[in-house]
Amino acid sequence: MRGESGVIVGVCISHERASVDQLETAAADSERAAVETLLSHPAVAEAFALQTCNRTEGYVVVSDREDGLDALDLFTRSVPDDAVVEMGHEESLRHLLRVAAGLESIVLGEDQILGQLRSAYETARGVGGVGPMLEDGVMKAIHVGERARTETEINEGVVSLASAAVRLLDQECSLDGETALVVGAGEMGQLAAKALADEVDRVLVANRTVPHAEHVAESVDVDASAVALDAVDAAVSESRVVVSATGSGDQVFGVSSFEDAGEVSVVDIAQPRDVPAEAGRLPSVTVYDLDTLESVTAETRSQRRRAAEAVERIVDEEFEHLLAQYKRKRADEVISTMYESAEQVKASEVNRALSAAEFDDEQAEIVESMADAIVSQILAAPTRSLRDAAEDDDWSTIHTALQLFDPDFGSLDQTEPPAFVEGMAVEDIPDGMREEIPNAMLDQLSDD
């Protein structure tokens, strides 16, 4: 299956519709595992997965929408229908642009999502999931994310879940003179440690790999030290607040970790959860999770509303550019057919001319160069016109070009759709093109 002839189908399970438990249920073991599983589906040509603490998304390139949703059942099978957003080709592309720009995040305009998107892209590309269709879409999304953060103030103020977690803790209890425990030495853990260092007198960093925890401890401008993950219960007893942000597949804490800890406030921003929900029932323990952070970020959302409007305009502009880019590629398929047809005629006539007279090698080369130049000059204007036609959704012109330059095109009316609609779902074919395609072809596309 050729990726450039397919359409993108996507699903999204995010904080907007799903609970923390549902997000945990929807997530695959890893982005790599998700992409590999999607690619194993016979209908999938390309695949991409994005999994963060507040969203799980999957995208596939397929010929048929239902095949795509069948493959994406990997994410949706165990969560309620009302927690899932299903997206067609253009919806998927626009959504990816919005995600990269930070418009879909809990913290509007957060920076971390852009790095997470880049990482997911590299993961998918590394296992063969990214082809020409997703390459254009994801790279455009990353470009939009970069523009949003350099051309607007969308990321001013609270820019991460980690900083939102620290703001929440600061609102709920006094941090001055206290000790804070950060569990996890990844990007979110580092951000949490740096944010806490401005509020507390001491930071403990716990991580399964102690050298990584030491690196985080050394990076903050406050008294800090690293501890092993198996010593985390003892670290809790020394701490007034805890921010947990590991990537562990298992819960890091048990309820017993907090029973003798005294008064402690915990923000669990890990996905899946690091802290059991039952811990929050202890009288001296307060547990906040991703759902709670929604209230903390409301103020930031209000402050960034004006910037978000500017980002929306960037998304609209770049979305149109992306659609035009895809249309140009569709036109290039027709242009390729046109050049192949002309090349066949040129080669035949050059061979006939060379056979009719005796030419030395230099003369023969001149004849071939002249023929190449004639073909290029004759086709230059039609090439520009076809690309313009594609951008204007003028599929009648492209249809006519196929009839003129593809000697077999006429015979396709009774057998199969033309190459420039190969792999497209009927609902994704622009109206202008659909009018030019016989009903028998549309029926075949529907059946396929």
TrEMBL record:
- Keyword vocabulary terms for this entry: NADP, Oxidoreductase, Porphyrin biosynthesis
User: Which residues does the annotation list for site: Important for activity?
Assistant: 95
Q: Which GO terms describe its biological process?
A: protoporphyrinogen IX biosynthetic process from glutamate
Query: What EC designation does it have?
Result: 1.2.1.70
**Substrates-to-products reaction catalysed:** (S)-4-amino-5-oxopentanoate + tRNA(Glu) + NADP(+) = L-glutamyl-tRNA(Glu) + NADPH + H(+)
Active site annotated at which positions?
53 (nucleophile)
Q: Which PROSITE patterns match?
A: GLUTR
Q: Name one GO molecular function term.
A: glutamyl-tRNA reductase activity
* Keyword NADP appears in the UniProt entry: yes
- The entry's NADP(+)-binding residues are 184-189
Q: In which pathway does it act?
A: Porphyrin-containing compound metabolism; protoporphyrin-IX biosynthesis; 5-aminolevulinate from L-glutamyl-tRNA(Glu): step 1/2
What InterPro entries does this protein map onto?
4pyrrol_synth_GluRdtase, 4pyrrol_synth_GluRdtase_dimer, 4pyrrol_synth_GluRdtase_N, GluRdtase_CS, GluRdtase_dimer_dom_sf, GluRdtase_N_sf, NAD(P)-bd_dom_sf, Shikm_DH/Glu-tRNA_Rdtase
Residues bound to substrate are 52-55, 105, 110-112, 116
The residues covered by the Tetrapyrrole biosynthesis glutamyl-tRNA reductase dimerisation domain are: 311-406
Q: Which residue range or ranges hold the Glutamyl-tRNA reductase N-terminal domain? A: 11-152
Question: Boundaries of each Quinate/shikimate 5-dehydrogenase/glutamyl-tRNA reductase domain copy?
Answer: 174-296
Spell out the subunit comment: Homodimer.
- Which HAMAP family does the record associate with it? Glu_tRNA_reductase
Protein family membership: Belongs to the glutamyl-tRNA reductase family.
Other remarks in the entry: During catalysis, the active site Cys acts as a nucleophile attacking the alpha-carbonyl group of tRNA-bound glutamate with the formation of a thioester intermediate between enzyme and glutamate, and the concomitant release of tRNA(Glu). The thioester intermediate is finally reduced by direct hydride transfer from NADPH, to form the product GSA.
UniProt note: domains = Possesses an unusual extended V-shaped dimeric structure with each monomer consisting of three distinct domains arranged along a curved 'spinal' alpha-helix. The N-terminal catalytic domain specifically recognizes the glutamate moiety of the substrate. The second domain is the NADPH-binding domain, and the third C-terminal domain is responsible for dimerization.
Q: What is this protein called?
A: Glutamyl-tRNA reductase
Organism, as annotated:
Haloarcula salina
**Name of the gene this protein is made from:** hemA
